[in-house]
From TrEMBL:
Catalyzed reactions per annotation: guanosine(37) in tRNA + S-adenosyl-L-methionine = N(1)-methylguanosine(37) in tRNA + S-adenosyl-L-homocysteine + H(+)
PANTHER family recorded: TRNA (GUANINE-N(1)-)-METHYLTRANSFERASE (PTHR46417)
Gene: trmD
Keywords: Cytoplasm, Methyltransferase, S-adenosyl-L-methionine, Transferase, tRNA processing
Identification of the protein by name: tRNA (guanine-N(1)-)-methyltransferase
Function statement: Specifically methylates guanosine-37 in various tRNAs.
Biological processes per GO annotation: tRNA N1-guanine methylation
Residues that hold S-adenosyl-L-methionine according to the record: G112, V132, G133, D134, Y135, V136, L137
Gene Ontology molecular-function annotations: tRNA (guanine(37)-N1)-methyltransferase activity
Amino acid sequence: MRIDILTCLPRLLDSFFAHSILQRAQQGGFVDVVVHDLREYTLDKHRRVDDYAFGGGAGMVMSIEPIARCIRTLQTERTYDEIIYVTPDGERFEQRTANRLSLAQNLIILCGHYKGVDERVRELFITKEISVGDYVLSGGELPAAVISDAIIRLLPGVLNDETSALTDSFQDDLLAPPVYTRPADFEGHSVPDILLSGHEAKINEWRFEKALERTKQRRPDLLS
């Protein structure tokens, strides 16, 4: 898989992809994450990627020209399954969306800034719009990183135990059950006996019951 991230602040993403699972995924050849500086695609001598909004009002708008040049350059090199724009008014990002996107070969993620992008970018280039929550951030870099993380960890071979991702919260519309590790007793608080029994079928049954119980208590909307 290849993920191209388009941003006017590429340094914000340097650290995120340089550690832990995401770093190992790239080093192992499971994914190629390429961050593009939109300022490299502007013809403005000051490398500006924004301008004032037609009609007035507060805030600047990201210009269409550098974005169009970047996307078209990338499209000459490969075919993209989706060109994603992260925006507060997009489709809410959920596990099922991550599952679908993890099957793609090539993705572009465009990070917005200021008051957003020129609407013609959305009309001409964007195939999917995603929101990571009902709030506004200073830019799209954090959402792009969140989306990438959720996708990459699902790729076969990325996690040491591939079944781990299958038992995460939101898979099968359930929250994950409680988990425990050593010591078995901490100041009188003990691990449930069933988890120490070695009886796999009963342990799986317990985990399902606890996952269902937690989901009913905390996210009953998932069961609907």
